Amino acid sequence: MAIDGYGAEGPSGGEGFTPGSGLAPLPADLYLDDESLTDELSDADSDELELRANNARFDAIQEAFVAQQRADAAGESLPVPVPPAASSKTTGKPAKAPPKRRLGPRKAVRPTPDIQFRLSLATNSFEQKDYEGAIKMLSEVIRINSETYQAWTLLSTVHEELGDREKATMCLLTAAHLVPKNVPVWLNAAAYALEGVEDMEDGSPEKTQALARAIDCYSKALTADKRNIEARTGKADVLMMQGNSALALMQYYKALEFKPFNIRTVRNMADVALDVKDPRKPAENAKKAYKRLIEHLQEKGTLMAEEGMFEWSDLRIYLEFFGILEQWGDAARELKEVSRWLLGRREEGYVWSGMGEQEDDREWDLNDDRRIQVPEFEPARFPLESYGAGLPVDLRARLYYYRFKMGMVEEAEIHLGMLDPSKENAVEEFMDFPDCLKDIGNSLLEGDNPRPERAMAYFNLFREIANITGDITIDADFLVSQGRCHLAMGDKLAAEECFIAAIETEEDNIEARVQLANMYEGEQAQEGKEEAFLLVREALNLEVKQGPDGKIRKIRKPRKPYGPRKPREKKPDDPNAPKRKSTYIPRRLINAEKRKQQDLEMTEVATKNYATLMELKDKVVAGADEQTQATWMAAARDLVDDFRSYKEFYPWEKYIKYLGYGGNVQGQATLPARSFKLAAMAQRLQQTLAPAEGQEGAAPPPAPVAPKAHRGITFDKWLDIFLDYAFYLVRAGQHREAYVVCHAARDSIIWTAPDTTFLIHLAWASCAVYAGDEETCVAIARYFMRDYMPGTDAYRMFSAMCRVCQTPVSWYTSGPAQKFILRQIKTMDGIMTRKLKGLEPYGKRDGEAADLNGNGAATTNNDDGINLDVCLLTIYGHILFSTTSYTYALNYFARSVSIDPNNSLINMSIGLAYLHYALKRQATNRQYLLTQGFTFLFKYYHDRLATKTKEVRPGKAQRQEAHFNIARAYALIGLGNLANEYYWRVLKEEEDDDDEGEEELEGTGKKNVMGNEDLTIEAAYNIRTMCFLLGDFDGAKAVAERWLVL
Prior knowledge:
Blueprint: E1 2-3, E2 6-7, H1 34-37, H2 43-73, H3 88-91, H4 113-127, H5 131-144, H6 149-162, H7 165-178, H8 183-193, H9 205-224, H10 229-242, H11 245-258, H12 263-275, H13 280-300, E3 304-305, E4 308-309, H14 312-324, H15 328-342, H16 349-353, H17 393-406, H18 409-418, H19 426-430, H20 435-444, H21 452-469, H22 476-488, H23 492-505, H24 511-521, H25 526-545, H26 592-621, H27 626-644, H28 652-658, H29 673-689, E5 709-710, E6 713-714, H30 715-731, H31 735-747, H32 754-771, H33 774-787, H34 792-804, H35 815-836, H36 870-882, H37 886-899, H38 904-918, H39 926-945, H40 956-972, H41 976-992, H42 1016-1029, H43 1033-1043
Antiparallel strand pairs: 1-2, 3-4, 5-6
Helix pairs in contact: 4-5, 4-6, 5-6, 6-7, 7-8, 8-9, 9-10, 10-11, 11-12, 12-13, 12-14, 13-14, 14-15, 15-17, 17-18, 17-20, 20-21, 21-22, 22-23, 23-24, 24-25, 25-29, 26-27, 27-30, 30-31, 30-32, 31-32, 32-33, 33-34, 34-36, 35-36, 36-37, 37-38, 38-39, 39-40, 40-41, 41-42, 42-43
């Protein structure tokens, strides 16, 4: 018989027979050689084959048994086979060496017939567009053998047809992991992951995930074949999309090691080298890569390289690196040599390279007047168009700049004469290369002898071309250059407009701010110096965010592998796109009419926002929808920002702090050279505007007349806007922003009256309480205790605010809070001591006010009304009590009770302090401490239960409180039997219910005992717990059923 291709010889043949067993020998092929099948079988197929082998072995044993029985009946005997040799001990032959284990993934086995059948069914379903049936069949194949590569690839195609790219990508990645050494599969998966990535928004999770998957696929492909150039450049391209220029550069370096003459790789590497943080570092390597490519193409005598042709644009990029390294002579030499090659005159190189020290640019003149002076020159050898007329105009502009930098003024002037912007065909000549006009204009503004009039001609030509084409952007760099030109010509008004336009075009432009600051610093008026200081500090802040060259890094996209290479052009601005505006754009030199027009526009916007605020306020208070609330918040934010940006309403130091320029500029060792100059300028201006103590500065300006309104809105309404906005911020969970708004209102010079200051701090405290911010609550309460001294209500407010904050008492008991309260106590003690001695109050001896509390609060006029405050002493005692300093707390409680001996709260605090002190490990005379404690506690107890008059007895709430506190005190020291008695008294008060006049809680039928703090449930729970702990389960159950069932 044959089993799945494995032969069996029959009952009389084969090996594996055991002598003496009485059975016929088994076929030798039934003993499966697992080692021989290791490389051919997958894990999923091994179980099936093992089952089949066991079945075949059972059938063979059965046949051998039947054959043996027939032979015995016929009186015959079966031959005894020799057992198979296992080692050299039985056969004398050396044992067969085990096969070597191969590392790496196993070779994929051919799918079994049933899997092939299911795959064919899935393929038919897919062709008939029965995608659900195909998915069902493929899922069954994967269940049987999850390593079936064809199933995953087909499933990916099905999901792609259904439009589910996520599942299609995951299936494709899973298939690729099944064949990890197959590089084309990984490349296909990476390409599929990158489909449509250019249309995704930068920074979106979808794009980030797609790029990460593509990088992983390219990395796996490189693991399989590190010499694969497509995987290497693909990974570098994706790294460029991610903005990882340094990592992309390393990949391009490795790609060039294998294919140094691939022009696409060289171009991408050059682009990345120009985009890194410091382009000087990779500039040399990029220059060498281009030089190697150029020499290779020149040796081959062709311009066609791998994946593209060498073009003029490649020469322009090649020259960029010479400019970065400031190698002007080498740049001019390479420009001429490569241009000569591109124009087909490489054979004539010996003529112009052998001029030695007399080397000049006569080769690129428009006529032969100077060229014929060279003996080796042959005028008719090459056409005239291959000389000066064939050189692109932007490369001639570069050649002019190189000669200008080298000091070859005569050669530079010759080139500049050929670049005359006043020619009739100047527009057509510069139409394709308008950027070189900016470079020429900037070079004319450099050096010891600037020529701004001539530079302005080039700038005007650039603007004319931009207006004609309509697709050239007037960027910030051009506006700054034009502004510098106006400034050199003495037109400060036009220069200011150009610099401001540059800031409006590019919000992060630094050079425009520096130029404006230099202009404003020279003004005599203090307002100009203020504007200069703000601009300098803004420039310093921007330099921290940007690179050393003052440019924001942009993510470059990799070049496409095929097709002609187009010159780089800037996309025109979208007219419907919102314009980015700087938050601070000064206009110092414009006339009064324009300034007035700007104020009118801002007033109109503020009026519209205020109308929106008033219209939606009632709806927001009533709980409007999210859109209405967002509209109200936006209008309030704009109004608050408008008020805060008006520097006349704030002291100078507060105003610059609001703008974010309050930090010190000294000691910044990591700043580049220009930043040091800006920092020095900022320090100089700040010293002029706000001189340090003991130094002279600018004379303070006269105090302005306080206005009554701003933007047509009175200041009382402005304060309402600030406080309402703060309340809504804290309700939205933005309590830090709410604090900033309250702080801005407090710092303004408008709201300095006591009533408005009190209102601002009260709103600030409300925000802190709502946010549960104990730190801010303590800080605001200190303000009230300091500025409203003496004031028992201020001390009570301090305790109440800390009580309602559902946070630990860390800030209530903090060191600063303790010191502040203690200073308040010492102040009162000092005043009372002087009164008892008959001395004059503080400050009255010499007519000067004294700062007694250390916080600037004068107390001279109120000394006569200051006495020892029980509330203040008790608060400090509670602070010490909370820090377990019971002995010190008792001192202040004792002082309090000496002033108010019948105060129940003080007596209870003293009793609890004695009890807690008695429970400490190192307490001395513990019995005495407990006796003292309960003495004060029962004094508190009897005072709370005593009747004030014959007609009025304490209410139920007051009686429950007294019983419960005594019960808790007994429970604290472990006397549960006594505690249980007082807990039952709490319950008995509820059963008696003889109070009259107490309101019932709506819908419950119960009395309103102490508001929402009825102690009945707490007392019943404690009784139940004690009963349960003592084993009285029936009593615990009865109490729970009677009092704890809601």
